[in-house]
Write a structure and sequence with these properties.
Oligomer: single chain
Number of helices: 1
Number of domains: 1
Largest sheet: 4 strands, mixed
Distance between the termini: 71 Å
Radius of gyration: 21 Å
Order of helices and strands: HEEEEEEEEEE
Strand content: 25-35%
CATH class: Mainly Beta
């Protein structure tokens, strides 16, 4: 009975550790550069607003990188961890300010949610931190 328990424990530990390696998954980690900013809507800090950075075609990454604003409207983009930034390239910024409930509603009526229509861009150059300053959005332009 005890030998069976030891064997079963060994087998479970072996299976669970099978995928653990020192090799990083998904290829080598890209070099990132900090990108920060503040979002205001109608002149007020926008708390819990989502900022998405959509890479332009041909970029090293193929998915958007997302950050949320704090109580003062500030955000700091993080590719791998909070605030580490983005790899070199040009990104279109989109903004969503969702009210949670059923259904989920964007307080900006999705006026700033389509990357193909976004006029907000950032070009990241390695080693040159980007402070986007204050990005002014308006609910009037979202109606």
């Amino acid at each position: 009975m005890q030998l069976r328990f030891v064997f079963r424990t060994f087998l479970i530990c072996s299976v669970l550790s099978f995928g653990c390696t020192e090799k990083q998954r998904g290829g080598p980690r890209l070099t990132t550069t900090p990108v920060i900013g503040t979002v205001e809507v109608d002149g007020e800090a926008a708390e819990n607003l989502t900022v998405e950075c959509h890479p332009e075609p041909g970029a090293e990454i193929k998915h958007p990188v997302i950050a949320n604003t704090d109580s003062e409207g500030r955000f700091s983009i993080g590719m791998y961890q909070k605030g580490d930034g983005l790899p070199e390239g040009t990104y279109r910024l989109t903004f969503k300010w969702e009210e949670f409930g059923l259904p989920i509603k964007d307080k900006l009526n999705r006026a700033f949610a389509d990357p193909s229509k976004s006029t907000y861009k950032v070009t990241v150059v390695a080693g040159e931190p980007n402070d986007l300053g204050v990005i002014e959005l308006s609910t009037k332009s979202s109606k």
